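Bench log. Compound arrived from synthesis this morning; before running ITC I wanted a structural hypothesis for how NAP sits in the protein. Inputs:
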Amino acid sequence: MWLFSLIGFCVVLYYIVQLCVFYYLDSDFELYLLSKLGKPISSLRGKVVWITGASSGIGRDLAITLAKHGVRLCLSSRKLSELMKVKQECLDASRGYLNDHDVFVLQMDMLEIDSHNTYFDKVIDHFKTLDILVNNAGRSQRAEWNTIQLKVDRELFELDVFAVVNLSRIALNYFIENSVKGHIAVTSSVTGLVAFPNSATYTAAKHALHGYFETLQNEVFGIDVTIFCPGPTATNFLQECFTNTPGEKFNKPVGADDKRLTSERCAKLYSIALANKTLFSWAGTRPMNFIFYIGCYYPNVSRLLIKTLGIENIDRLRNGRPLGES
Ligand SMILES: NC(=O)c1ccc[n+]([C@@H]2O[C@H](COP(=O)([O-])OP(=O)(O)OC[C@H]3O[C@@H](n4cnc5c(N)ncnc54)[C@H](OP(=O)(O)O)[C@@H]3O)[C@@H](O)[C@H]2O)c1
């Protein structure tokens, strides 16, 4: 009898420790352990990594973090002048590991899906190879579900899903045809784990990415696939967000005292996930990280939590504001 009591006690203790740990960490437990005991980011030195959406936010900081460790980079997005600035920041951060040729700037609109093959060939012409494609370009959304126009649903899916799927398919075919042990990563979001209110299309898009890339993990062997889910992170994304109306941007800056993960920290955790080829990782500050944990493993509890706290409070938490603030 005492043996069953001991087992029961250990199980309860395990869950209590897990819950406490998630309250204090800023990533999932596996990523935390890998940051202490796993492969260092420098294990990627010399690899060619293409980051889409590298002109700002998480993509920019990911590029700089990887450059510090001598990773060769293709930086792509629409704004050439911003990309050139990021290129210089990467070269400065690289402490001599990288030269001008090692950081390739590619002006590219992800929505020009018919030109993806041409863009891909440009990267291969430049580096003669590709090791990792990081699908990071994307836009979030703030809007109540019943006001969102179908055209917005389509535009958001075109950028956050179809463009990502198409570019990834080209990269996967390249890896397979050229016997490259490649790696594809996608910047999802914690909205791919927990269905937060007030961004229904975005949440659906990130869930679609999970479905697609998890299928790749089960169907394409010999290629690594990482799904990385940032929680609220301080970037330009609230300005760039889709709303409910086609062509409109949310256009709100992130508040200086909003409690969000810094883009630098998010990029560091992302780099650790890439170096260790994790299947699935997430990052976020307290108490959001705790909510992600609950949402991931106990979805019924997270539904109850969202109902209990109410949409306004969930919005506040998502925006890094205290509960109950007006
Ligand atoms: N910040 C957060 O709290 C958060 C949380 C979860 C997930 N994420 C995800 O993280 C990723 C990066 O977002 P971020 O927060 O770093 O926002 P951001 O600073 O606005 O960066 C978005 C990047 O995507 C690029 N982009 C947008 N539309 C594009 C297009 N049509 N073609 C090519 N590039 C395009 C932008 O570059 P150009 O304007 O130069 O084209 C920019 O470099 C997104 O996938 C987002 O969903 C962010």
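What the model suggests: The chain has a mean pLDDT of 94. The longest helix spans residues 150-177.
ITC booked for Thursday regardless.
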